[in-house]
Amino acid sequence: MATTTAIAMDINDNEDIVSNTDTLIYDDEDIQLLGDEINDNNWRYAFQEVLDDIHENKLDDGTRLLSYDNPCKIRVKKLGNTPYTFPLSNALCSRIICEHGIPLSLINTYDFCGTKVTNSAWEIDHSAIDFPLSFTAAIQSQAFEQLHLNTSDLNTEFYLNLDKLIMFGPCSQTKVYNFDEKLFIYLATVLVFLPSYYTGGNYRFIDDNDDSDDVHRHTFNQHESDNSKPFILIVPSDCQHEIEPIEKGFKLLLVYHLVSKTSSTHEFYSLLSKSNNNSMNIQNIFLTQRLNHIFTYWEKNLDKMPSKILIPIQHSLDYTPFFSMLFRDKYRTILQLITTTLKQLSSSSSFLIYSAILQQDEPFGNTTDSRLLINNLKLLNTTNDFILDLNIQHERTVIPNEVLGELHMYIDAYEQSGGRQQTLANGNVVYRNYSKFHVLVIIPYEYQWDLLLDDYSFACHHVSYMLSLPTNSLNILCLNLLECILRNKTLSILSFDQLIRYFIQLYNRIGLTTKLIQSLKILFQHKQFKDELFSNKILHYWLNRLVECFHSWPMFSMEFLDLFRKSISTSMPTKLNEIVQFLLQFSHKTLRTLLINTLLRHIFKRRGLPRHILLSTCCSILHLLIVDGSYSVDALLTLAYNIIKRVRKTSLANEILDKSFKMYLIPMLINIYRDIKDKEKRIHSKISLSPAFILIYEYCLNTLNYYCISTLSSSSPLNIISMNEALLICPCTSCARLQIFLIDPKNSTLIYDLSLSLTVDHCLRHTLSKFPMLSIEYKHDPCTGREQTLIISKYGYEQEQKQLCFHLRRLLLQLHQI
Fold first, then answer.
1. Between the CA of residue 600 and those of 544, 561, 597, 631, 797, what are the distances in Å?
2. Domain parsing of the chain, residue ranges
3. What is the Rg, in whole angstroms, of the alpha carbon atoms belonging to the chain?
4. What is the pLDDT of residues 644-676, one digit of tens each?
5. Beta-carbon contacts of residue 209 (< 8 Å; ≥ 6 apart)
6. Element at 217 (helix H, strand E)
7. In terms of DSSP bridges, do strands 231-235 and 188-193 run parallel, antiparallel, or are they unpaired?
8. pTM, to two decimals
9. Fold assignment, 57-272
């Protein structure tokens, strides 16, 4: 088959110039320019473009003339040792059928009209026939060449096994057969059309693995070619074969099966990945160059790339990976290009290649909560470094962003829930299961621990075990594992206090290395770590320990300040009190001062005290500055005077008590006093109270003393409702008394006698529920315990305020007892 290739003079213009030569010329500068354009935004597109540029398919090769110059001969055991030369006579064919023929099973037992199809094909077992070794060697050589198995490292791992000779006699109906009853055993079927005398009998095979509408492909008419020459055709082992009506004569067909010495799919992949394919064409060399630039960028920018990528190497229609590798040559080319590219990198062990199975955990049920996962991982490349040994049952969840190529095809296949039904020649029914597909997993060596991270506790167990060993050779592996934990996106909850303990242990073992610094930066950038920075009390303790270890590293302060700045920008003002407590427990004084200044600059973005700053914010800041003790008395007094000034703007006494004293000032004083006493216990030294604290304390105490000895509001009773509103109240006897009481400004108390009725009228209860400002008190009979008197008062709210005033005053006077 003659092929024409193109000379690409300018890759950027995508212009192809047809030439009569078999050479492709590419400009190295264009290749280099393409590699320089790889970045974190287009690497996926560039990778996908390489995969899409591979379109090889062995099934498109069709039937070929067998390269065998000698006459084709056969020996039949029961007919003596005399070799018979093809084409065989009709009489000899009939005699062979009589001696050794077994009827070949039909697929189409009935035709479209319902007429029973008469069988006219017989199979002769391989044990009854014999062919010259040179003939068998020619068939194997040409089959291996077509399947690219003719290299020195592959041809010894595969062989052809003669299965049967099939003789098709005269018939008037089109018939469909399955030559391979033992499915999933053979990798491919090799058909040899022997020279024969017959008329009609065109052949075509039905490719059930084709995703196009026309599944009948590759019709072969031996009469149009050369009836005296043998032809060879390689087809999948799971396809069906159609023979059109034969007018006269016998059509002879040899069936070989391709068998591999490898016992598993992973060994097959490993064998192909290590193959030295010297026949790589110039187009594949160009694709290798493009892949080289992508992997080089990945190697230098691990933080910008995924932890791993998955590349499917099995088509969604293929229920065996051998079919995809042998016939859909795209997947085998992908495997060989990637392995070749990784060998060309500066460090051949920078990336690890695994073969794995991609599946959905619940492919036959409700897919809303299902996940994609990989299992049965096997390493394909070799390295002298430490490699994880994962068992077959190990699973790892993957996210769609990590899958390149035809993910949508596999999702569609999963949703078909069960697959397609196929009936074999022996009557058995096989369901093609779409739940599992083979993929390549490419992962940087440093991120190989990512394969363990479905179980966070399991990953931490590995870190603890490696740190417990006396050797230092595993320290870098521990760092790699910690970095993978922090980069992982499928872990929902992390224990950061535990991770910080690991970092402290590693610091004590290896010191302050560049790798350790990089891991700490990743820790500080983790979103969950930022969310828990101010709320996790246990994390505060271990963060203090971490600061004590790393305070001598100048960049640590910068990185930690940047972390603090980003955290407060997302936490203010709702978590201000938590931020204050975080800063107060911070043990490193210099860094704590820097953090406090950062917080103040974030709050007071202009000079002075802007009006939009809440009173609660001012109280929290004063609390922080007083307990910290690093700021001048003048600064604290200025802030305290501002707080008092803002409180005095509230003229009503009720609002001062509720909205200022009760909510902010008194709790602030109590917390300041408590934190100072705790600080005295830690440093074993007496700390004098700040003048700003005393100023707020005296202001609150004097104000409360004044309110306690005076009336909070006007002494005259209140009119609860107006005259017009009173007319809307129920006119019953009980409610009429309540109506008069509400509009009478001189009457402050109303008493109902319940001793006669023993209960309050239902209508009165409903009316009272509309006036929450009234004070309602029941007095009970000491003997019976029943309600005896109902007392309604208009002074309930003022009494409550006065009680609050006494309570707050008592808290200040007994502050040392709290």
1. 21, 13, 5, 12, 40
2. 57-272, 282-414+433-451, 607-713, 735-817
3. 44
4. 988 888 666 667 888 888 888 999 999 999 989
5. 236, 238, 239, 315, 317, 318, 323, 327
6. strand 216-220
7. antiparallel
8. 0.67
9. Jelly Rolls (2.60.120)
